[in-house]
Write a structure and sequence with these properties.
The complex is a heterodimer of chains A (311) and B (283). Chain A is mainly alpha-helical and 311 residues long. Chain A is built from twelve helices and two strands; from the N terminus they run αββααααααααααα. Chain A starts with 14 loop residues before the first helix and ends with a helix. The N terminus of chain A is likely disordered. Chain B is mainly alpha-helical. The longest helix of chain B is centred in the N-terminal third of the chain and has 37 residues. Classes of the chains: A mainly alpha (311), B mainly alpha (283).
Chain lengths: 311, 283
C-alpha cells in the first residue's frame, strides 16, 4: 500500500493527505446510507408518493398541514413524551441508587473492587445485551393474564384479587412497556454512573471524613456535583434512545390496545409500511428527525466538554 | 464521630444487611425474567397453563427440539451470524482507519466529523427507513443479506469510530512518532505500531458492533421478505401464533437467540465494560 502512495519529495503521502484518505471511506458510507436517505425523506415528504400505485405527485407542504390536524399524530407525540419522561426518569434514579449502593462513596472501607462487585457488573451487562425483541417477548409472557408470573406473584402476595389483563388495558399497557424499558436500560445507566463514581478522586472523600462530614453531606457536596456531568451524558443518551423507541413497544403491544401505546416511530412505520403512504410517512419521519435534532443540539451543549476532551 | 463503638457497629451491621438485601433484589430483578424464560422453556404443555407450581415437575427438552427442528429458525440464526460477522468486520476496518486519522493525523474539521458521527448515532431509524427501502429495492438488493450487511455496517460505524478514537488517543503519541522517524508511513505506523496496543479497544468496538447488528430489528424487518435473509430477531417477532402463542417454543427460541450474545458479553466482559465507558464517560 505504501508503495502506491508515494508522492512528493519525501517519497510518501503527507500526514494530512493520508488523514483525509483514511476518513474518506467512513464518511462516504455514512453519507450514502444516513445523510442521503434523510435528505431523500425530506424531499419525499413534499410529494404524495404511493409506490404500489405508481403515484408521485408534488403537493408542497400539504403533508405537513395534514399532520397538524392529525389526531393520531398528536396522540403519538403525547405517548412518546410520556414514555420517554417516565422511563428515563426512573432509569436515572434507580441507576443512581444501584451505583451508589455498589460504590458506597461515603464509606471509608471497601473502596477496592471486591469479587462480588465484579460479578454484579457482569449481571448488569445481561439485560442490556438481550435483544430488544427477545425482551419484549419475555415480558409479554410475564404479563400474560392467565398463566403469567406477574399476576401469580401479585395474587399470592394479595396485592390484586383477580388476574389483570396488563396488555389489554390502555393505562397498564403503556406502563407495562415502560417497566420493560426500565428493566432493560437501568443496569446500563447504573454501569455508566458507577464508572463515573469510580472516577471521583478518593482524596476528596478522605479530606471530608477528616473534617467530620456526614454521609449525606459527603454525598450532597462531593459525589453529586462531581457526578453531574456523567448523569447528563446518561440522561442525553437515554432520552434519545427512549424517544425513538420502536421494537420494544412494537413487539410487546403493537401499539395497542387501540392506539394507546403507539409511539411516533410506530405510527410512522405503520403509515409507511401498512398503508404504504410514503409521502405522508416521510413527513412524519422528517418531523421526528427535527425533534431528535433539537434534542441532540441540546445534548451537544451538555456534552461539549466531552467532545473537547476527545478532539 | 463520637458514637460509641458498639452502637456504631450495630448501625453498620444494619446498613450492610440492607445493602445486601437491596443488591440481592436488584440481581433477581435483572436476571429474573431470563430465569423465568429458562424455566418456561423446559415445562411441558400441561404445566405451562398451570401456576403453581413454579418449577417443572418433569423437565422436558421438547420445546428446544421443536425450535431447532423448525426449518426456519436454524436458517435465520445462520443469517444473523453471517450478517453480524460481516458487518462487524467491515465496520471495524473502516472505523479503525477513520479513528486513527482523527486521533493522530493533522486533518481539519475533526470536531465537525465527530459531532456528525455522534449526531448520526442518535438518528431515529424510522427517519431513514423509507428511502433506504426504496434504495435497496432500486439496487435489487431487497431480501438479500448484502442489504443488511451494508446498513448495519453504516449504523455501527459512529460508535465504533468514537470508541476507537478514545483508545488510539490513549496510546502514547511518542510510539507513533518513533515509528514515523524510523521511516514508516502513516499506514505502516498504524498497522504495526498502533494496532497491537489498541487490541482491547478493537475487541470492545467489535463486540459493540456485533451486538448492535445481532439485535437490530427495524432494518432487518423492512429489508427482508423471506427466511432467505430474515435474521433471528425478525423470526422471534414473527413467531407463528395463529390462535395462541406457543409459549414453551417461544421461550426456547428466545433463549437460543440470546445465548450467543450473552456468551460473547460474558467472555469479553472486561473489554465490553471498557468500550461502553470509553464511548460515553472517558471522552
Amino acid at each position: 500500500m505504501t508503495g502506491t502512495m508515494r508522492v512528493g519529495s519525501k517519497g510518501r503521502l503527507s500526514e494530512a493527505a493520508s488523514g483525509y484518505l483514511f476518513v474518506a471511506p467512513a464518511l462516504l458510507i455514512v453519507a450514502l446510507l444516513a445523510l442521503v436517505p434523510i435528505l431523500t425523506a425530506m424531499w419525499l415528504s413534499l410529494y404524495r408518493h404511493l409506490p404500489i400505485f405508481g403515484i408521485t405527485e408534488f403537493v408542497g407542504l400539504r403533508n405537513y398541514l395534514a399532520l397538524w390536524s392529525d389526531q393520531r399524530f398528536w396522540s403519538a407525540c403525547a405517548t412518546t413524551l410520556y414514555f420517554t419522561g417516565v422511563s428515563v426518569g426512573a432509569e436515572l434514579l434507580l441507576g443512581l441508587g444501584i451505583a451508589l449502593l455498589l460504590d458506597q462513596p461515603w464509606n471509608a472501607a471497601g473502596k477496592e473492587q471486591t469479587e462480588a462487585e465484579r460479578w454484579l457488573r457482569v449481571v448488569m451487562l445481561i439485560p442490556w445485551t438481550v435483544p430488544t425483541v427477545v425482551s419484549a417477548r419475555m415480558w409479554e409472557w410475564l404479563y400474560q393474564t392467565d398463566y403469567g408470573l406477574l399476576n401469580h406473584l401479585l395474587m399470592t402476595a394479595g396485592v390484586i384479587e383477580g388476574p389483570v389483563n396488563w396488555l389489554g388495558h390502555p393505562y397498564w399497557a403503556l406502563h407495562a412497556a415502560i417497566a420493560m424499558d426500565v428493566w432493560k436500560a437501568t443496569p446500563f445507566a447504573a454501569l455508566l454512573l458507577l464508572a463515573g463514581l469510580k472516577a471521583i478522586p478518593p482524596d476528596l472523600y478522605r479530606a471530608a471524613r477528616v473534617d467530620g462530614a456526614s454521609r449525606w453531606s459527603i454525598f450532597r457536596h462531593i459525589t453529586l456535583p462531581l457526578l453531574l456531568p456523567v448523569m447528563l451524558v446518561v440522561l442525553a443518551f437515554r432520552t434519545m434512545d427512549a424517544f425513538r423507541v420502536f421494537d420494544a413497544v412494537y413487539v410487546l403491544t403493537g401499539g395497542g390496545p387501540g392506539n394507546s401505546t403507539e409511539t411516533l416511530s410506530i405510527y410512522t412505520y405503520d403509515v409507511l409500511f401498512q398503508t404504504l403512504r410514503f409521502g405522508y410517512g416521510s413527513a412524519l419521519a422528517s418531523v421526528i428527525f427535527a425533534m431528535i435534532l433539537m434534542l441532540t443540539a441540546a445534548s451537544f451543549i451538555v456534552m461539549r466538554r466531552r467532545l473537547h476532551a476527545v478532539v | 464521630m463520637t458514637v460509641p463503638g458498639r452502637i456504631k457497629r450495630a448501625g453498620d451491621l444494619g446498613w450492610r444487611l440492607g445493602r445486601i438485601l437491596a443488591l440481592g433484589l436488584f440481581v433477581s430483578w435483572a436476571l429474573g425474567p431470563l430465569a423465568w424464560q429458562g424455566i418456561t422453556s423446559i415445562k411441558s404443555e400441561q404445566e405451562l397453563v398451570r401456576l403453581p407450581p413454579l418449577l417443572p415437575e418433569t423437565p422436558t427438552a421438547t420445546h428446544y427440539r421443536t425450535v431447532t427442528a423448525r426449518s426456519g429458525l436454524g436458517r435465520e440464526i445462520l443469517n444473523s451470524i453471517i450478517v453480524a460477522t460481516s458487518a462487524t468486520v467491515s465496520a471495524i476496518a473502516v472505523a479503525a482507519l477513520c479513528a486513527f486519522a482523527l486521533a493522530r493525523l493533522p486533518i481539519a474539521g475533526k470536531t465537525t466529523i465527530l459531532s456528525l458521527l455522534l449526531g448520526i448515532s442518535m438518528f431515529p431509524p424510522v427517519a431513514v427507513i423509507s428511502p433506504l427501502y426504496l434504495l435497496v429495492r432500486w439496487l435489487g438488493l431487497r431480501d438479500t443479506l448484502a442489504a443488511l450487511i451494508l446498513t448495519h455496517t453504516a449504523y455501527a460505524l459512529p460508535l465504533a469510530i468514537w470508541v476507537l478514537t478514545v483508545f488510539f488517543r490513549q496510546i502514547p503519541v511518542e510510539l507513533y512518532w518513533a515509528a514515523r522517524v524510523d521511516g514508516c508511513g502513516p499506514w505502516r505506523a498504524l498497522w504495526s505500531v498502533l494496532i497491537p496496543p489498541a487490541r482491547p479497544g478493537l475487541a470492545a468496538a467489535a463486540l459493540l458492533a456485533f451486538i448492535f447488528s445481532w439485535n437490530e430489528f427495524m432494518f432487518a424487518l423492512t429489508l427482508t421478505a423471506t427466511d432467505r435473509s430474515r435474521t433471528a430477531p425478525v423470526a422471534i417477532a414473527l413467531f407463528p401464533s395463529l390462535h395462541e402463542v406457543p409459549w414453551g417454543d417461544m421461550a426456547a427460541a428466545t433463549l437460543v437467540v440470546t445465548a450467543p450474545v450473552i456468551a460473547l458479553a460474558l467472555a469479553f466482559q472486561r473489554h465490553l465494560l471498557a468500550g461502553l465507558t470509553a464511548g460515553s464517560i472517558k471522552g
